[in-house]
Design a protein that fits this description.
Chains A, B: Keywords: Hydrolase, Metal-binding, Protease. Two copies of one chain form a homodimer. The first copy, chain A, is α+β, with helices and mostly antiparallel strands. The first copy, chain A, contains 14 helices and 18 strands. In chain A, helix 4 crosses helix 14 and helix 12 crosses helix 14. The first copy, chain A, is globular and about 80 Å long.
Chain lengths: 451, 451
């Protein structure tokens, strides 16, 4: 049976299995989901066993477990390490979901659930592609290893140490990751760059208690005023980041890179309309793909302080908080960046406010040369299935572990994404377009056979 | 029996009754407390009946009920209308309360509960003072009316209409209100001014969904960035409000007013230490009492948007919110002020952000001449009980209805406060110092007898 018929025949069964996977609320950031994390890891291990992997191991870590599997019966052939993650982002604001995030629902050819595309859906494709090859051919065209973690959404704190300890076990010729996107429907892409990431939390405290805005208003510091003044100082009126030294290590965009970006023929107006925006926004002198692919950011992800309930409360809040992440490019150093931001905040903190800065995640940006043969083989596989050759892009997101894989295992990393850019990753109503579910399975099979 | 002995004898019983009153969570701002509001109104009505008032009525309104009572058997004597409110502020952040807000607890001579001082505790003093006069003398030295509402903390939306409809019923020679503070322990004060108030809510919307900060970060507007930029534009770096025309109607401080303020000998350093502040803060060229008594404010009471949970969420929020109140002085017009702020916000809203401004409460400032005889009589009553004459002050808070009382009933308003400035009004651990519970009862009796 050809692979198209094979996958068609098993489509309902595969979707039912994926739905089952998606019902597990494996939110790595929230400690109350500890048990769900174990359940999701066990689910992945079970499916790898059913697929025919020889060895399947669930490794406990100080955080969430890592699932490892191998099938090494192709002597003389390359080894492929498939990476993915079974953890998902938090789901709030919950009221904006049309169907509950952990009750997977298919509507209009799309599968809606938290993790549908990031990354449970895409990870699932690899398990089913390997299973298909084994069932159809009785063997695999290459040696295959899986390394599936549960901490990608919290910056993979356990995986680097696991990688170092198990360097030999994980040794490979190529790492394959499906956690990125096509350019748009029908336009495949292979990401050759990822932005780095660093995160921090900022807390302002003023008085030792909330105060009445009548009795004290105008005479004491207000934690929200101090925080807003401080946060506003981080960008100038053109949206450029004002932190001293922030842009150190950011490469200037060469004419060649601008040309590569321009090849995507990205439709900014279409995006603007799709997102219901009056205007896109960003650094002057750059297009949207350049801004998101090759420029760093300093972004407020959450700000809160004072009264949030119904009605009015005439209070001067004693504390206020902000959550910030930066996307990094080129050789920007996440540790130095966090230090620079902290120094900026401490220099600018207004009179009467006490500042606490808590640094968080740290990951460098990653870049690969598109001319590498394994990337060209991946582009061939896409062309076979999609009828159009994959473009080489830079992805604005961060998969902090990619840079570590490439460094520790000294192997090229192929980012074969099957998501779409508008599938609400990290937002309400995340979904996975099933056209790419079908084509993804075939593309992975084609890639493994061509290696 | 003299009144000191009388109140001493009944002290435990009175405190038990007040505690009972304080267990009712009558938060007017939250619609879920509708039933508690009725219960609190009925409690007040019952206690007025027990005190010996002839007529006691509970008037339904479109909001929360108004309790009216009268005892008019002193022909030829003046009529006193006692105003108070049985509603209280919301209680969050709840985790900062040492004992639950609606489980009144006495610790170190202070009664802790939401509403202990603002205004259930102070209102209760008047009921018990009138009861004492009737029991001890068999009659009242003046004609007494009570008008007790349940919407003071939400700016009294129903009372002005009630006042107009019942102008004759409420007709009086003097209005007495106990909803303000002594200057400090042992230093009584009569407030001859209150700041006005206006409130608004600000909402920013950018995209139609929350977005992934990797895929979109740097290329689309972030609702929090837009809100922070907008809010930061409301003050200059000296803390002055930058809204055009905002200071119209704000009187310059005369040398005489500055002298009156200086009489308070307010200890700014003591306040700063008490509040755990590194520094007080406010407009240059003014003292703390001038800033809070005679200068307007534009204050953030709440700001929120994006992720507030544990850990990191790499999200670009699609919406962000702020709650703002202004304290007004002199002849500042609350309606015009709201219009000016709205115009400023609409002028400064950043590219790509949609702005919604929702105006709320509106109340003018109030001022009285300290030389008025009824204020002098009140000062005499304080002197009799506290051994020191009350100072005439300006209060930074707003009791929006005071200006309405004075205008509609054409009567002087005596603000005889028995709270203390550090009793955590509107904040966690609100309390009432029982020294002023005891002295307050005696002062009210002395005042009514002297009129």
């Amino acid at each position: 049976m050809n692979y198209e018929s094979y996958f068609q025949q098993l489509r309902e069964q595969h979707l039912e299995q994926l739905k089952q996977f998606l019902t597990i609320p494996s939110i790595s950031a929230l400690s109350e989901h500890k048990q769900d994390m174990n359940e999701a890891a066990q689910w992945v291990a079970q499916k790898l066993k059913e697929a025919g992997m020889d060895i399947v191991e669930v490794h406990p870590t100080s955080g969430h477990p890592i699932v490892y599997a191998e099938h090494l019966h192709a002597p003389g052939k390359p080894t492929v390490l498939i990476y993915g993650h079974y953890d998902v982002q938090p789901v709030d604001p919950l009221h904006l979901w049309e169907t509950p995030p952990f009750e997977p629902t298919i509507r209009g050819g799309k599968l809606y659930a938290r993790g549908a595309t990031d990354d449970k859906g895409q990870l699932f494709l690899h398990i089913k592609a390997v299973e298909a090859l084994l069932r159809q051919e009785g063997e695999l065209p290459v040696n295959v290893k899986f390394c599936i973690e549960g901490e990608e959404e919290i910056s993979s704190p356990s995986l680097p140490a696991f990688m170092k300890t198990n360097e030999e076990k994980l040794a490979t010729d190529v790492v394959v990751i499906s956690d990125t996107s096509l350019l748009e429907k029908g336009k495949p892409a292979i990401s050759t760059g990822l932005r780095g990431l660093c995160s921090l939390e900022v807390a302002i405290q003023t008085a030792n208690t909330d105060l009445h805005s009548g009795t004290y208003g105008g005479g004491v510091p207000n934690a929200l005023h101090a925080l807003i003044e401080l946060l506003a100082s981080l960008h100038d009126d053109k949206g450029r980041i004002t932190v001293e030294g922030f842009y150190e290590g950011v490469p200037e965009l060469s004419a060649a890179m601008r040309e590569e970006f321009a090849k995507q023929q990205f439709n900014e107006e279409k995006l603007q309309n799709h997102l219901g925006l009056d205007a896109l926004y960003g650094e002057e002198g750059y297009t949207f793909v350049e801004r998101t692919g090759a420029r760093p950011t300093l972004e407020l992800n959450g700000v809160y302080g004072g009264f949030q309930g119904e009605g009015t409360k005439t209070v001067i809040p004693k504390e206020a908080h902000a959550k910030i992440t930066c996307r990094l490019v080129g050789s920007q150093d996440p540790v130095a960046t966090l230090e620079r931001i902290s120094a900026h905040l401490h220099t600018h903190v207004p009179t009467g406010a006490k500042l606490t800065v808590t640094p968080g995640e740290k990951a460098r940006a990653f870049n690969m040369d598109p001319s590498h043969p394994v990337l060209q083989t991946a582009a061939d596989a896409y062309e076979e299935v999609y009828g159009t050759r994959a473009l080489f892009t830079k992805d604005g997101g961060s998969i902090p572990i990619v840079e570590t894989f490439s460094r520790v295992l000294s192997a090229p990393v192929v980012m074969m994404g099957f998501g779409l850019p508008d599938e609400n990753l990290h937002a309400p109503n995340e979904h996975f377009n099933l056209e790419n579910f079908d084509k993804g399975l075939l593309t992975i099979v084609a890639f493994l056979k061509r290696l």
